[in-house]
Amino acid sequence: MLKKKMYPRYFLLLTLLVYIVFYIVPSLLGLVYSFTDKTIYSGDAMNFVGFRNYLQLIRQNRFVTGLKNTFSFTIITMILKNVLGFGFALALNQKLKTKNVLRAVYYLPVILSTLIVAQIFKAMLLPDKGIISQFLLPFSSALAHFDWLGSRSTAMYMVMIVDIWKGAGYCMVIYLAGLQAVPQDCHEAARIDGATGWQTFWKVTLPLMISSVSINVLLCVIGGLKVFDLIIALTNGGPGMATQVLNTTIYSYFGSGALSTGCAANVMLTILVVICFALVKQVFNRVEEKTL
Amino acid sequence: MKNQMFKKVMPLVISAAMLVPAMSPAMVMAEGGEFAGRKITLTTAEDWWNDTYQGLIDAYEEASGVEVEVNILPATTASEVIKSQFATGELADITMNSASPSELTYMRASETLLSVSDQPWVEKISDTSGFLYFDGNLYGLPLASQDFWGFTANKNVLEACGLEVPTSKEELVNCFDVLLEKGYIPFYCGAGDSWMCGNITSSGIAKEMEEDPGVVELYNTNQRHYSDSESFKAMLQDVSDWAAAGYFGDNFMSQTWDGMQDAVANDECGFNIGLTSWLTTVDNMFGEGTSDKLELIPYYIGMNDTIYQSTCCELYIAQNSKNIDVCLDMFNWLTQDENLQRLYDGLGALSIFKGINSNGMRPSTQSLMEKLSDGTYGLHVSHNSVIQGQDWDVFCSLMQEVYMGNMTPEEFCEEYDDFRYSICVALGLEGF
Fold first, then answer.
1. A236 — alpha (psi -120 to 50), left (phi > 0) or beta?
2. B112: closest chain A residue by CA
3. What is the pTM of this model?
4. Given this model, what pLDDT does residue B243 score?
5. What single DSSP character describes residue B294?
């Protein structure tokens, strides 16, 4: 009889060590620092200050604005990335001659570096000179002259559009994989029963795709709450605080030397991500239980 | 026999010949100074670096055989990147930064920078600002111009509108109205970048300092705050009002360098913020004499009517650098009279070194110098260079809210005072 081969447990040690040194220890240190007055100027000296840093953060308009913007960014991009991704997946799940090319085209933005994407869009959105302004010029000189990234009313929407453009392809791939796993006989049975296209989608396809929707929504929520590089490269949080999110706020605290305040903000962000993750997961678990 | 010798010798000759080009740089370097073959790194930003600096560094490389790797950071992110480098201690051998340690407290000069107080070139410095020394030490080589900043009036545009160069805030605002009516951008403002956004506030507490020089100490000991300053709030109110009135044009949240140079050269705007060395830049970009149409006038904003005397860019050597000897050698070479002369001629601005008078000063700069000498114009120093605990990026993001009318001067002051308080606590300043 062939014995089941077991690898020795010490094989785990190296991985565990790396994980502890580079993830667990810094996280714990961050948690400890958040209850102290440690700064980049204070060297090894630090005093316990309780929840002072947390209370200071909650009072600050900068942090509250960052929190609000993070939520609106997360919710809007999550919805639109999923709707578009699902739409692309449905469209490209048909028998098209060009489907492989189109899949590659829709997925292309995902593989581009965020910083490069930001630079490209910055150039495209320049007032008067950008390609979008040039395109708008024949229709309206006012629109061509408009500073899309420099205006309070549009800056956040522009950042969201870029994020959706970059992320919808990723959702599409997960939905495509899900669609291909949906048994064809379910669709055929629905068709025989006289279901319309919309009814088939709503009653058959979507319930069978809940696990894909769940994964995509969770990934989009986590990514949205943690957004940083796109905003830093595209608007640097501006104009004013229009595109300031939690991570850019944390960055500004660290930048000014207030390590403990930055750590407190980071702890709050982590807690927020965990809570949102748990909530979304719970909702989808219930939906899955109902549909299956 | 002959053939065999030939076969043996020829490969050797060929290989030796092939090695010559590869060895030649080392041979050339060997002709340089005692540090030939060594390499140092220099970090700077595209706003602060120009052909004159690069030319001088190239000449030093040639003379010494030292390789200087210049890392030029993008203007938009330079201050954040340099701040991060100071926070982590991962500094280049030499860092060029925009101001002195007293202004940029995050540099933690005594911990991170090499004091150069005892270097032979220090006695050549003629410091009129008083900003260079920090804790009694000189930490940087102030190898930049002693710049003077003002609102820059475009005389061509004003003449086309039948206007005179203003001599007061009232006259300036009157010019704005006429320029707006005639279709010009009254005051070109690129508040998208911190340089322009914050610079306009330099005179915020000038009036207070004029009345009581001891007021700075009150700010630095938590006895006075921006929200207590009427002159600061008056300046913010003007910024907000001018933006609302359209004096800054439609797209005042743009990046300065995206359009300001063209707008000035093409006579599209009546005023902008300029500085003496920038006049040389304009001439270099658009042709000799372009800057003759420009006149630097005081910052007529809030309660102020003076010219802004800025601190200047300095080169700092990292304390933990392994190439301190090479860096000091470069500083000594750069501060030789002929090299300083070459630098200031290229910059076309006032020198901070004794006996070095720039031959490249533009007529507009000379005219300003005369007005400063005869007392027509007074001088102010920027509030952020004397009041400790600044974070320029946060300051400017809040200023942008004022520009957009989304924050009142009072709200700005309260919020910035609060943020500054946490920095002052971090710095361990007395009273916070």
1. left
2. A41
3. 0.77
4. 94
5. E
Q: Is B40 helix (H, G, I), strand (E, B) or coil?
A: strand
Interface probe for A, chosen from B253, B403, B417 (most Cβ of A below 10 Å), is B253
Query: B25: pLDDT confidence band, cut at 50, 70 and 90?
Result: very low
Q: Which residues contact B49 (CB under 8 A, 6 or more apart)?
A: B70, B72, B96
B15-144+313-357, superfamily in CATH?
Periplasmic binding protein-like II (3.40.190.10)
Instruction: Collapse the DSSP code of B94 into the 3-class scheme (helix H, G, I; strand E, B; otherwise coil) and give the result.
Output: strand
The predicted-structure confidence for B238-255, as pLDDT tens digits, reads as follows: 999 999 999 998 888 876
Whether residue A261 and residue B422 make contact (CB cut-off 8 A), yes or no, is: yes
C-alpha to C-alpha distance for B240 and B368, rounded to whole angstroms: 28
- Residue found under tokens 């522009």: A158
pLDDT in tens, A264-286: 999 999 999 999 999 999 999 99
At B114 the pLDDT is 95
Question: Chains A and B: how many Cβ contacts under 8 Å?
Answer: 100
B250–A147 CB contact, under 8 Å: yes
Q: Which of B268, B394, B399, B410 to mutate to test the interface with A (most CBs of A within 10 A)?
A: B394
Q: Residues of A numbered 79-138 whose beta carbons fall under 8 angstroms of chain B's beta carbons: which are they?
A: 126-127, 129
Long-range CB contacts (within 8 A, 24+) of A127-131 = A127/B251, A127/B254, A129/B258
State the architecture of B148-309+364-427 in CATH terms: 3-Layer(aba) Sandwich (3.40)
Q: Out of A112-121, A152-161, B81-90, B318-327, which region has the weakest mean confidence (pLDDT)?
A: B81-90
B51 has a pLDDT exceeding 80: yes
Residue B338 neighbours by CB under 8 Å, 6+ apart: none
Do B415 and A60 count as a contact with CB atoms less than 8 A apart?
yes
> Has residue B17 got a pLDDT over 60?
no
Superfamily covering domain A35-291: MetI-like (1.10.3720.10)
Q: Where are the domains of chain B?
A: 15-144+313-357, 148-309+364-427
Same topology, domains B15-144+313-357 and B148-309+364-427? Answer is yes
Burial class for A95, CB neighbours closer than 10 Å (0-12, 13-18, 19+): exposed
Residue B373 identity (one-letter amino acid): S
The bridge status of strand B39-45 relative to strand B94-97 is parallel
pLDDT (0 to 100) of residue B16: 55
pLDDT at B258 over 70: no
Angstrom distance (rounded) from CA A246 to CA A225:
8
- Residue B188's pLDDT is what? 92
Say if CB B243 and CB B405 are below 8 A apart. Answer: yes
- Indicate the SS3 state at residue B317: strand
Per domain, the residue ranges of chain A are: 35-291
CA atoms within 13 A on the CB side of B112: 25
